[in-house]
Write a structure and sequence with these properties.
The protein contains eight helices and ten strands. It is α+β, with helices and mostly antiparallel strands. Strands 4-5-6-9-8-7 form a six-stranded antiparallel β-sheet. Helix 1 packs across helix 3.
């Protein structure tokens, strides 16, 4: 807005912009409680419903969070978990930690996962097409987990594996009995990851994802659809990561072909 020009935006948007500037400049730092709606209404000489609209805008932008009976607070920034393009590298095996657990250890957090389901099922057309299996039969094993850092759910992971690979293996158990996890079992079956393909997108979460990931209003998710490709160019495993955007980032360092 140039000096001397009239701000023609609705009053609620003007107040939201002013509060955003105050938050970004540190006047209201992370974790600080904002003035009450009554005080803000008096400060800006507007009705409380106008302030409410302004706060809704800030909530949708992910800047504030409301706590029942306590007030409205500036959202605190959480430590980011970075999944890199090298996360499946054998170098992590020497440490005895998965990439996620290694990232947790760097941040002084305890990593764990909760198994939601392990079942043989019919895949949808997208998954069956990627894996080259039938969509008309129970041709895949699906594993669903939520990964936690301390008490914070970080992402939800759904993995599909051809049943011909999973049948009779530790992939059907909650704790996969292999020191290198599911990829150790794949290698035992003759599938060594030579390449991977990640399709990355961002979107707003579903109601179920809001529940599982304990998402505050306005926080989107990052979705990564990962395909593991073996030495023969065959896709042998597909995993969908649904990540909290306020706790996750991606880092890729790859040669340009």
């Amino acid at each position: 807005m140039s000096e001397g020009s009239e701000d023609k935006r609705p009053r609620s948007q003007q107040i939201a912009a002013a509060l955003r500037e105050a938050i970004e400049s540190g006047i209201y730092p992370p974790g600080m409680r904002l003035p009450s709606q009554r005080d803000l209404a008096q400060q800006y000489s507007v009705a409380r419903n106008t302030v409410d609209e302004a706060l809704k805008t800030l909530g949708q932008q992910g800047l504030i969070t409301s706590e029942w009976g306590r007030g409205v607070f500036v959202r605190e920034k959480k430590s980011l978990f970075r999944l890199g393009s090298d996360r499946y590298s054998p170098k992590f095996r020497e440490l005895g930690l998965s990439p996620f657990l290694l990232e947790c250890a760097k941040q002084g957090k305890a990593g764990r996962f909760e198994v939601l389901s392990i079942e043989r099922m019919k895949p949808d057309l997208e998954i069956s097409g990627l894996l080259g299996v039938s969509a008309k039969t129970k041709s895949v094993l699906r594993r669903e987990n939520v990964f936690y850092a301390d008490d914070d759910p970080v992402y939800r992971v759904t993995t599909w594996i051809p049943w011909r690979l999973a049948e009779g293996t530790g992939l059907l158990e909650e704790e996969v009995p292999h020191p290198f996890g599911i990829h150790g079992i794949f290698e035992g079956k003759g599938h060594v990851m030579a390449r991977s393909n990640d399709d990355v997108s961002a979107r707003m979460p579903t109601p179920e994802e809001v529940d599982y990931l304990q998402l505050q209003r306005g926080v989107p998710v990052i979705e990564v659809l990962h395909s593991s490709i073996d030495q023969d160019g065959k896709v042998y495993e597909v995993t969908r990561f649904v990540m909290r955007a306020d706790m996750n980032a991606l880092r890729y360092n790859s040669p340009v072909e």
